Amino acid sequence: RVLFRSQIPTSDVSPMYYSRKICTYNLTVYELAKPNNTYCFSWTELNGKRGSLEIGTCLLRYIDKIPSSVTELSLFSDTCSGQNRNQNISALFLYLVQTKPNVSVIEQKFLESGHSYMEVDSMHSAIEKAQKYVPVYTMHDWLNIFRMARTCRSNKKPFSVEELKYNDFFDLEALSKLIMKNKNKNTNGEKVSWLKIKCLKYLKSKPGIILYRYDHNSDYNEINVFGKGRPISLNEIVLKKAYIKPRPISIQKKQDLLKLCKSGVIPDEFHQYYKSLTTSKNIEDNNIPEPDIQDSDSLSDGDE
Question: In terms of Cα–Cα distance, which of 170, 140, 177 is closest to 48?
Fold first, then answer.
């Protein structure tokens, strides 16, 4: 799975290149098993950020779609700690492996740095080719591009596309705080270095236990996240919503978008949409694209 980032509006008009735009996100999932089903879970910055809460919600929706005959899941991704390898995602998988009747094993595998090419990257290549000469003014334009991207290149089934709104995302940080009482030491009392982990495994037969290892071949170590306290019944937990209303954009970003409307770069029929966007002076913004959230000595999402 990989997160694909884009913007609204998008075209080859030069004034648009230098303007702040609405960020859009698309988590892509590619199934290695035939017939290689593909999924796009998409949202804009008006509805969510690009962290573990959003990524985890998309994975939950994907797991909801898998056939009841599937009992074990192996998920491959890069080592981005803010999105993939963190306690919020781990809390979600601990929760799902206990609450999904058919799922008995969930395994995460993180690729080595410099060797992170995956089949899912072909989805991004197809999307970029499908969009190359198509201007984008709304999220619906992007959704249509996602749907047609695969059919442009082959006779395979089109990407399954789903748009998420602000009230679709779950507060996985709250879930993590509730169940991850211990995450820093394994059952042998040794410190856990989350940034070095290459594999994580969650078993229905071991509620509250995370199996981990620092490579792809050695034996697993165990973390009892419940600690020494009373075990938590994960089946009784109800996930909370992450957002209660759409997220505003910066005043500067809206000003740039309205300038594009006034100059005619954005067609008249889309002006009302951009005028209706809410703003907040507490949001700082600039004209530099957001960098990827990478591993660092200071773990995001409270990994350690």
Answer: 170
CB atoms within 10 A of CB 256: 20
Q: Can you tell me the distance from the alpha carbon of 244 to that of 146, in angstroms, rounded to the nearest whole number?
A: 28
User: How many Å apart are CA 298 and CA 304, to the nearest integer?
Assistant: 9
Cα 178 to Cα 172: distance, rounded to the nearest angstrom: 10
Give the number of residues written for the chain: 304
| Rg value, the chain, Cα | 21
Residues 6+ apart with CB under 8 A from 221: 186, 187, 188, 190, 192, 211, 212, 213
Q: How far is CA 27 from CA 40, 77, 133, 165, in A?
A: 6, 11, 23, 14
pTM here?
A: 0.89
Closest listed residue to residue 22, CA positions, set 47, 4, 1, 40: 47
Q: Which amino acid is at 138?
A: T
Local mean pLDDT, 10-residue blocks, the chain (304 residues): 85 87 95 90 96 95 94 89 84 96 95 71 88 93 92 74 97 95 93 93 96 94 88 90 96 96 96 96 64 38 38
Residues near 264 by beta carbon (within 8 Å), at least 6 away in sequence: none
How is residue 170 written in tokens?
Answer: 């779950």
Partners of 210 in the β-ladder = 202, 223
